[in-house]
Amino acid sequence: MPVAKNELAAKELIKHFRHVGTWLSVVPNKSKWVNKDVIKLTEIGADPKVLINNNTYPIAVASREDDTVAISLFKYDTENTKITDDEIYALPYDKPGSVQEQHRETLEETTAEHALHSLAPMGNTTNTPILVTTGEDDGTGRRRLRSADLINYKTQLNDLKIPKKGRVLVLCSAHIADLLLEDKKLETQYHNHKDGMIAKNYYGFELYEDIYAPMYDNSLNKIPFSADTQGKEASVFFLKKRVAKAKGSAKRYFKKSEDDPEYRETKVGYRIYFIAIPISEKGQGAIVSGTAA
């Protein structure tokens, strides 16, 4: 019976693990590609050429070279939470249920933060451009993000032949504040948005906001996730069709107070496998605040 209950609790965790109302909800779900907590991703080769008013035959034949790679999903464990029999007896609410809900929400938050960090480029390259803002000093030595910066970034992506459809920009707190100060129309949309998306088409980007932001050093190299090193917060750009997310297995670890005669405590913890990553070399980017002289 305990095994069955643990399996049911794990299934419930996966069922409700959806990141609803966040930018992560628009990332294509490729969980069906997962086998034993490993996902096989295929980077599709070059697009075929399109011939217009062709009158030359035979039409050329080309092969398409695809690259497939197997990647292990990240493993996320929550620390165990204990609940004493004395607490359960004295409290007027369902603390075990509240604890399990808290574990799920914490896993959702942490996996979303790690996902955004994973989708941010490692550094500034030709295929993964990082824009440095050029606005006025905000009073701290940081240059604000301007709408003109976004227009320039859009042009840069156009030059790279990044498709216009499905461009997503997840703004950090500082950058969304910069744009709200500059654009009153965006401010109205910001206060009225309900589904997590701030704007559907803002200079060609779907705009979202996240309180977490990956960090970059002064050389525009990404700082490792959860590192103590200080850096500059970044907004993250990605193209929908060139990223993927996937859930793997989930498990609840549960020990009943009846099995703990010394302390009479129930202990519970969770583990889930999850990943969100780019599936192409092109389609990633970031915006980092410049430094005022």
Question: What characteristics describe this protein?
Answer:
four-stranded antiparallel beta sheet; about 290 residues; alpha+beta; phage-related protein like fold; about 30% strand; seven-stranded mixed beta sheet; single chain; 14 strands
From the spread of the alpha carbons, the general shape counts as globular
Number of domains: 1
CATH C-level:
Alpha Beta
Assess the beta-strand content as a share of residues.
Answer: 25-35%
CATH A-level architecture: Alpha-Beta Complex
What percent of residues adopt helix (DSSP H or I)?
25-40%
Mean pLDDT: 88
Order of helices and strands: HEEEEEHHEHEHHEEEEEEE
Rg calc: 23 Å
Number of strands: 14
Q: Report how far the terminal alpha carbons are from each other.
A: 66 Å
CATH topology: phage-related protein like fold
Largest sheet: 7 strands, mixed
Query: Which runs of at least 5 residues are low in confidence (pLDDT < 50)?
Result: none
Structural class: alpha+beta
How many DSSP H or I helices?
6
Architecture overview:
- The chain is of the alpha+beta class and 293 residues long.
- It has a single domain (1-45, 63-293), classed as phage-related protein like fold.
- It is built from 6 helices and 14 strands.
- The chain has helices at 2-16, 85-90, 95-119, 147-159, 173-182, 184-192, and strands at residues 34-35, 38-43, 67-72, 74-77, 81-84, 130-132, 167-171, 197-202, 205-209, 215-216, 232-239, 243-255, 265-278, 284-288.
- The strands form 3 sheets. Strands 6, 7, 8, 9, 10, 11 and 14 form a 7-stranded mixed β-sheet that branches. Strands 4, 5, 12 and 13 form a 4-stranded antiparallel β-sheet that branches. Strands 1-2-3 form a 3-stranded antiparallel β-sheet, with no helix packed on it.
- The longest helix is centred in the middle third of the chain and has 25 residues, at 95-119.
- The protein starts with a helix and ends in a 5-residue tail after the last strand.
- The model has no long low-confidence stretch (mean pLDDT 88).
